[in-house]
């Protein structure tokens, strides 16, 4: 299977019709149909690494101040407890614990409701250990490589540039946001994963673009699953509200519209 990072942006992308989610629909048509999906979302942070293991994960509306239509949206995809237990026994030396309380947050379902609207593919989520650095998360991604041979789609969901405190609707991108977004693109293209793992060492543009790491870290899982020489395709290459990059990338798949 290919592997995928999606810049998910606002929860409103779940119910609006726009170029971002039209591209997500196009992506699903190009990908082999997965037997299951493992999502690493920016919106599930824990102490220690966890994986959802419920049969029927709930749809989590982890936001406020949005229209009722968004809160009414459900994504009733089944879980996959057996896959969750496989991950717990395979991912080493990290202790990965099964979780029955979490479900699917909007980092996952706001994208999948467009890609797979029938909600008939099992979905589990892997949490982000907030106590760990980029190297830890990258190495966790390496542990997930075996899933590609089992027909499982691994999807990271966040935003490569994400500074909510400086959002400015209708404005041009900040210079630092555009600069760092392009640097990320170049590092991914040239395979310089070390620069991405140690993003906190990349200067002022990086510190403004990643003022907290949770939206960036899912990308490291996906990059860690790249095999030598595999192609990378970028999509949704734009910056929203001056400080949020919607850039996504697909590794190992067919070209994207």
Provide a brief overview of the structure.
Helix content is 32%, strand content 19%. By secondary structure, it is an alpha/beta fold. The chain has one domain: LigB-like (Protocatechuate 4,5-dioxygenase, Chain B).
Which helices and strands occur, and which strands form pairs?
Layout: E1 3-7, H1 19-30, E2 36-46, E3 49-52, H2 68-72, H3 81-90, E4 96-99, H4 106-115, E5 123-129, H5 134-143, E6 152-158, H6 175-190, H7 193-197, H8 204-209, H9 217-224, E7 232-235, E8 239-240, E9 244-245, E10 248-251
Parallel strand pairs: 1-6, 2-5, 2-6, 3-4
Antiparallel strand pairs: 1-10, 7-10, 8-9
Helix pairs in contact: 1-4, 5-9
What does this structure look like?
The chain has 257 residues and is α/β, with parallel strands linked by helices. The protein has a single domain (3-251), classed as 3-Layer(aba) Sandwich (Protocatechuate 4,5-dioxygenase, Chain B). Helix content is 32%, strand content 19%. The chain has nine helices and ten strands. The strands form three sheets. Strands 5-2-6-1-10-7 form a six-stranded mixed sheet, sandwiched between helices. It has a two-stranded parallel sheet with strand order 3-4. It starts with a strand and ends in a 6-residue tail after the last strand. The mean pLDDT is 96.
């Amino acid at each position: 299977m290919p592997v995928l990072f999606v810049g998910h942006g606002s929860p409103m992308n779940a119910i609006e019709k726009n170029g971002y989610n039209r591209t997500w629909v196009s992506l699903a048509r190009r990908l082999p149909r997965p037997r299951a999906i493992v999502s690493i979302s920016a919106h599930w942070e824990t102490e220690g690494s966890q994986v959802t293991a419920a049969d029927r994960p709930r749809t989590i509306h982890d936001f406020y101040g949005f229209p009722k239509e968004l809160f009414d949206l459900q994504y009733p995809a089944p879980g996959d407890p057996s896959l969750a237990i496989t991950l717990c026994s395979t991912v080493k030396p990290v202790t990965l614990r099964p979780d029955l309380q979490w479900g699917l947050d909007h980092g996952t379902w706001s994208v999948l409701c467009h890609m797979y609207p029938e909600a008939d593919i099992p979905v589990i989520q892997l949490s982000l250990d907030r106590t760990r650095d980029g190297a830890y998360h990258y190495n966790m991604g390496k542990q997930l490589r075996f899933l590609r041979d089992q027909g499982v789609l691994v999807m990271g969901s966040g935003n490569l540039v994400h500074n909510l405190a400086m959002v400015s609707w209708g404005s041009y991108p900040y210079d630092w946001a555009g600069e760092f977004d392009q640097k990320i693109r170049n590092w991914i293209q040239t395979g310089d994963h070390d620069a991405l793992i140690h993003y906190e060492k990349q200067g002022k543009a990086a510190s403004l673009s990643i003022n907290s790491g949770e939206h960036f870290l899912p990308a490291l899982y996906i990059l860690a699953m790249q095999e030598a020489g595999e192609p990378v395709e970028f999509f949704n290459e734009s910056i929203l509200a001056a400080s949020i990059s919607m850039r996504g990338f697909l590794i190992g798949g067919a070209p994207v519209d």
